Amino acid sequence: MEFQLAGNYEFGRPVEQMDALKGFQAARRNADARHQRRVMEAARLYRDALEGRVDPILIREAMTPRTDFIVAHLMEAYPGIYGDPGGRALGLRETMSVTDYQALFVDVLDRMYYGYYNGYPIINKALVRVHPLRDFRLVSRYLLDGVVSPLTAMDAAAPPPQRALAWPNPQDGSPPTSSAPLQYQPKLYQAMTSVNWRAFVNDDLGIFRDLSNRLALAANRGISKFITGFYVSSTGPNPALYSTSYKNLIVPSYGASSANPPLSVQGIIDALRVLANMRDAGGDPILITGRLKLWYGPSYEGTANNVMNALSVYVQNEGGSGNTQGFPVQFLNTTPWMIQRLDPIMDPYIPIVCTTAGIQNTMWGITVDPASQERPNTEVGFLNGFETPQIFTKVPNTMRLGGGVDPTMGDFYSMDQDMKIVTVMGGVQIDGRSTVASTGAGV
């Protein structure tokens, strides 16, 4: 039995389907040919632009057609770049891909510039008395005691006692070491930078746009390190401020329970006890008022935050008791009263100024707010108008012939643009009776 299929068939398929398939294949070949032609024309345009034979603006117009006469020129000079002649203009963006131009896009096109490191603000200014200065002349600070005699019972007819002004005696009662005033002279400090015109022209990442921020950062760092040097030396607490004369070292002979304790709750209690024992030159107690500044280095960051955020404290030495073997017999659970007046100041320059191994990471201290003391521990003076460092730039002296000054060209000979930041400051240690310090070494 034979079956006859209705309709015309070719290779087992209807003739109409085969005609459609052939037409699709022909259209696909034509599309591929047009695509290859556009790729070739685009590559030729890109090569001509790189070699300087044509203006690079043609690349932009090829990718995003905007100007009619340029588009007409492109269609004439690079036929097929927009597709078939007379066809609709399509930018190169529609047909460009990384696979089409592997040889042309081997360089990194996604670039980013990461600038300078973040710097600390001048956080240790709170440890010194800041004083405005009028000029560069020598600054003298006089410390005088005496004049008023102690309050004593006496005969009403007796002549009044007299007491002359005297240079302040050290706290240990020894004679004054010097009768000269405390002096310092402000100095000019500046940081500078210079960038050539060619570097500005080549700067497509904006590297030199943050020069002012870099200068400000350098100034803040210099001031911070300058202040740190008044209470920190290369060997530990600065001996000009912390000495046996002032009795402001945290050791048992001045009231502490242990010698140079590390930063801890007990160490802070010892520091407060040493502060409470302070005496003036006449042997009378000194009233410690105002906030207390707890200063320390980076290694104590965790310890200081734990102490400052303590909810309760178990004390054995101060109110508790222990047996002869040193084990606690009584613990006293108290609120952390010792931190209520403290303001923590982490000074990152302590281990930089102090170069003695061990001590540079363990030293710490407490300073009474200098603004609350008539006789502060340290004074730092800034010239009026330069309390905040000022940025200056050199006026450019290059101008076009017949035109005005071109600020981008800088100096006429070097073509450099110069900037600098300026401050004027000085300082001196005044009196160590309002600050105490520990090396943290435990000895």
In short:
This protein is α+β, with helices and mostly antiparallel strands. It is built from nine helices and 21 strands.
From the structure above, extract its key features:
9 helices; 443 residues; alpha+beta; 2 domains; disordered N terminus; phage-related protein like fold; single chain; 20% strand; 4-stranded mixed β-sheet
Straight-line distance between termini? 118 Å
Q: Give the second-level CATH assignment, the architecture of the largest domain.
A: Alpha-Beta Complex
**Helical residues, percent:** 10-25%
Name of the level-1 CATH class of the largest domain: Alpha Beta
**Tally of DSSP helical segments:** 9
What percentage of amino acids are in beta strands?
Answer: 15-25%
Task: Give an overview in words.
The chain starts with 8 loop residues before the first strand and ends in a 5-residue tail after the last strand. It has helices spanning 15-50, 57-63, 68-77, 197-202, 211-231, 265-276, 301-308, 350-353, 359-362, and strands at 9-10, 13-14, 129-133, 139-141, 145-146, 165-166, 182-184, 187-196, 232-233, 236-237, 292-296, 313-315, 321-322, 328-330, 332-334, 342-346, 364-368, 378-383, 390-393, 416-429, 435-438. It has two domains: 9-94, no CATH class; 123-438, phage-related protein like fold (Alpha-Beta Complex). It has nine helices and 21 strands. The longest helix is centred in the N-terminal third of the chain and has 36 residues, at 15-50. The chain is 24% helix and 20% strand. With 443 residues, the chain is α+β, with helices and mostly antiparallel strands. A hairpin with a 2-residue loop joins strand 1 and strand 2 (13-14). The strands form eight sheets. Strands 3, 8, 18, 19 and 20 form a five-stranded mixed beta sheet that branches. The protein has a four-stranded mixed beta sheet with strand order 16-11-17-21, covered by helices on one side.
